[in-house]
Write a structure and sequence with these properties.
CATH class of the largest domain in chain A: Alpha Beta
CATH class of the largest domain in chain B: Alpha Beta
GO molecular function (chain A): 2 iron, 2 sulfur cluster binding; metal ion binding; oxidoreductase activity, acting on the aldehyde or oxo group of donors
Shape of chain A: globular
Distance between the termini of chain B: 78 Å
CATH topology of the largest domain in chain B: Aldehyde Oxidoreductase, domain 4
InterPro entries (chain A): 2Fe-2S-bd, 2Fe-2S-bd_dom_sf, 2Fe-2S_ferredoxin-like_sf, 2Fe-2S_ferredoxin-type, 2Fe2S_fd_BS, Aldehyde_Oxdr_Iron-Sulfur, Beta-grasp_dom_sf
Number of strands of chain B: 29
Domain 2Fe-2S ferredoxin-type (chain A): 15-91
Strand content of chain B: 15-25%
Strand order of the largest sheet of chain B: 3-5-1-12-9-10-11-20
Pfam families (chain A): Fer2 (PF00111), Fer2_2 (PF01799)
CATH architecture of the largest domain in chain A: Roll
Protein name (chain A): Xanthine dehydrogenase YagT iron-sulfur-binding subunit
Radius of gyration of chain A: 16 Å
CATH topology of the largest domain in chain A: Ubiquitin-like (UB roll)
Number of strands of chain A: 6
Order of helices and strands of chain A: EEEHEEEHHHH
Number of helices of chain A: 5
Bound molecules: FE2/S2 (inorganic) cluster
Oligomer: heterodimer
Distance between the termini of chain A: 33 Å
Largest sheet of chain A: 6 strands, mixed
Helix content of chain B: 25-40%
Amino acid sequence: MMEHSETRSQGSGETTVNLTVNGEPCQLTLPPNVVLLDALRDRLGLTGTKKGCDHGQCGACTVHIDGQAVNSCLRLAVMCEGRHITTVEGLASDVGLHPVQQAFLEHDAYQCGFCTPGQMMSAAALLEDSRIADDDAAVREAMSGNLCRCGAYKNILSAIQDARRHVSPQRTEGESP
Amino acid sequence: MRTLTNIKAPEAAPSVSHESSEARKEQTGRNKGDGPLARDTTTVHRQSATGGSSTHARAHESAIKHVTGRAAYIDDIPAPSDVLHIALGLSPVAHGRLTRLDLEKVKRAPGVVDVITIVDVPGHTDIGPVFPGDPIFVDDEISYVGQTLFAVAATSYKAARLAVKEAVIEIDERPASLDPVTATERGEFVRPTHTHQSGDWQQALESSAHVLEGEQFVGGQEHFYLEGQACLVLPTEDEGVMVYTSNQHPSETQKLVAEVLDIPFHAVTMEMRRMGGGFGGKETQASPWACIAAIIARRTGRAAKLRLPRAEDTRATGKRHPFNNRYRLGFDDQGVLTGGDITVIGDCGYSPDLSDAVVDRAMFHADNAYSLGQARVTGHRAKTNTASNTAFRGFGGPQGMMIIEAAMDDIARHLGEDPLTVRKRNLYRLGRDVTHYGQRVEQITLLHDIVEQLEASSDYWSRRKAIAEFNAKSPIIKKGLALTPVKFGISFTVQHLNQAGALLLVYTDGSVSINHGGTEMGQGLHTKVCQVVARELGLDLEQVRITATRTDKVPNTSPTAASSGADLNGQAARDAASKLRERLFDFAAQHFDQELGGLDREGMRLEGGELIAGVGESERRIPWGELIQKAYLARVSLSEKGFYATPLIHYDRDAAKGRPFYYYAHGAAVAEVEVDTLSGEYRLSRADILHDVGDSLNPAIDIGQIEGAFIQGMGWLTSEELKWNEQGRLISDGPATYKIPAFGDLPPVFNVDLLQGHPNSQASIYRSKAVGEPPFMLGISVWSALRDALASLVDYRHCPRLDTPATPERVLMAAEALRNATLVKAAQPETSDDPA
Ligand code: FES
Ligand code: FES
């Protein structure tokens, strides 16, 4: 058993990494070239995070790493040692749906739903980010990395602006996503 | 097997639940819950499930699953731990002969369990969906880059992919045929040419006051369904397979899997819960992957999963057909068409696939909303060395409409009229109400109403004036405005596909399960079908649940395509529900109030979760749950199947005449663009849409479909550029090189309304209209607005040719061409002003 929250190489060429995923500490032993997206989906069974392109260009795989929206297909799992990861499965809390989820529900902000988890994760992060202005143009810009082939952008935008009423921006610093 | 089993009390020490169940048994008025009989029945929560409520906006049936990430797609289904992952070996060249395929090193690569090629296919090797021509694996002839040569199954996906690289492939390469116009000249077709003709088009041209001609290239489109092609196949205990697939046409894939494995159809079961987008790309082209995975699953006895990575998906599968169109049309001084000749050439790729019907639909829509007069329309199906082009929202219709919309703009410029004026004059009207294929256009005034309402609501004419003034003062930035209509025929043009089935099951707690042949890909079909059943049975939407589309529940189904999903499957579900309802009425009339001579069968209805009989004093209400339980105990069947076949439609291919469409759906859009004529960059600043969905089944879903379709249509005509290199390799094979509309492309002003007060004149499901495809073509307004902005460079005397997608590069080239033409004209004032 590993006891330290420290990345360590295993004999088999696999590496052990300690993460906190949706509030639960977990330890994974995996090859160093496994991306976070695959680790979440295949190792932890968290299939809410989707694989749209696998190349950092569609946003379907967006998760939060320490509160920042990140394309999980571009992050190696081993680079996330000690980090707090939130996926769509962790967006709701004991008290109910996250305001973004509630707003997506009320605004029908999806059609096929495949982009939805990524859209919501990006939306939840941007609403907490006080550096992003609250007008439509700023939201569109901040959401530009999340593609929706069904073209549900209008409802997604209104859902985000509606959710804003229930989220207060917190973060003013931190690395760019 | 017994169907009734007594529920025994647990033997163990009494638990709380045991006690409560005992207590419940003793309650008076409750049944004991023998066998399948429920102890409690579902209740209706709101008084909202009657009459018009089915037309209210209702939440998507998977809403909560979508926002919590629990809506599972194929790749999310937990697979058995010994599942095999499949990777494909694809052809690197577009045309040639496979002279050597040595897979020895592939077989020996780590983790590899099975490797298959054409010789390992037990049954049919041709999986062409309608016509032959699609080998499951290359035999020796290679027809496009991305064609499947072999498949590798390994214990991990990575191992399978690495093993693919070990193959030794030798190909005797030949020149690739990539130009459909050249192919047409050479007579290289995947299917024979077809022609529609009405009247004497040559005579019409000769006697016309004006004649114009023009040509255009209309680019293709990658589906870019966000969930790529994927399937999971499990071997079953007999010789069969269970196939989970992201698929718009499970019955066809079932057939092909059975034929490839050489087993009966009943040994193959397909299950399809939802797709992460389909758009036509999973109508025929989801089958090959299921067939390959099925062979591996049968050979190895293990589950097999095949998921195409994005770049392979875009290379291996067909797209929207690119078209090369030409017109030569005559018209009078008012710009009203007298007749002429239109030719459309669809680039079908290497095999027929659905191209016969796609090019037919392009021909059926070469008139869009306008009477062509005496016209001939010819459609060629060119064969080229690319992936086999396939269904895509609109199915050729959009490409056909583009030629007549080009002509409308050109005619307007020729006569010095506003394009909207010319369009309005050409709309089908009394006396000019028969299409070039012989179908009479019903609801003839409807498009006129739509255009007039939209003209007013979008302020077309005052904006037109403001734009003219702006452009006169602005030398570089030019604004453009256009209103374009859509008339789109609804039905499969292949007649036998216009049928559907449904299976309705009611359980003894009163909950209802509906299954039908349609598939859910984001268009809200399942929600609509649930609404239909809830309405017919007077229940809440919550009491009706839809289950995954399965070929062992409803067999021999048609693809979910041609916008027909709700029309066909909604009617089949309604048929099942109304049959069951009548049976319940018969039962209730006899069973209840026997001492009073039974209930009044006439006027009986299901409403708000109750059966209601009689009126006033003698009104009797029986809760749904009680009705169902009594019916069960009286041995009345609580399941029903439904069926529907669209009436009236027919088409005689030899005569090229008929009524291929049950009805038409209509709409119109106004787009305003701003173009930087020095860079070609532009943006859509406003869009207004008015669309006809008859009496909407679900306005929220319909408006979402219209918005999404418009954006996708705009993407097709503006930013989505497919590029192949000279060797026939697709180089725009991912989102970095192929640009689908993103958040920033959403117009800042975007008004979408449903036309009110015009129920479908045909007896469609609750007089609604299909909505999946028709609004796609509203995107043409953006292209026409770009041409309008460009025309301002030459004082609207000429409309430039603008091939699509009208990328900034093409817009810039068109602007340059206009500027150069103006310079030439200034030097030679006597040049004809005929733009042709
Ligand atoms: S899957 Fe990560 S951005 Fe597309
Ligand atoms: S809802 Fe289908 S991709 Fe966004």
